[in-house]
Amino acid sequence: MARIEVCKVAELPVGQIKGAGEGETRVLVANVGGSLYAMRAICSHEGGPLDEGLLYENEVTCPWHGSVWDVKTGKCTWFNETLKDEPTYKVVVEGETVFVEV
Ligand code: FES
User: Fold this and answer.
1) Where residue 1 falls among pLDDT bands split at 50, 70, 90?
2) Given ligand 1 and candidates 28, 45, 84, which is best to mutate, with the most ligand atoms within 8 Å of its CB?
């Protein structure tokens, strides 16, 4: 299991998203009401960067074609076709630093 350093806790306030990692292990961490959730940040539609999407409560919208994803479950909650679930990951906070285990 690999660990990806994402950011400092202070850089991820409620309602914000941070992306980290490269290629197939690009991930996002979202702060939903003070709890941190991580999922793969590569949209399973055509690979859009979900870490650059808008977060509203627990849902992030893909900036490319507008699919909506639940960051808690990795499931697509809205799109005009069925999309494969995204993997979710464990978030670890050590000291002031946020990591994701992939
Ligand atoms: S790439 Fe995300 S909706 Fe198309």
Assistant:
1) confident
2) 45
Q: Where are the domains of the chain?
A: 3-101
In this prediction the pTM is 0.96
CA of 61 to the centre of ligand 1 (A): 9
Residue written as token pair 């290629």: 23
What whole-number distance in Å separates Cα of residue 9 and Cα of residue 98?
6
Q: For residue 36, what are its two tokens?
A: 């941190």
C-alpha to C-alpha distance for 91 and 98, rounded to whole angstroms: 7
pLDDT digits (tens, 9 = 90+) for 56-101: 999 999 999 999 999 999 999 999 999 999 999 999 999 999 999 9
The CATH code that applies to domain 3-101 is: 2.102.10.10
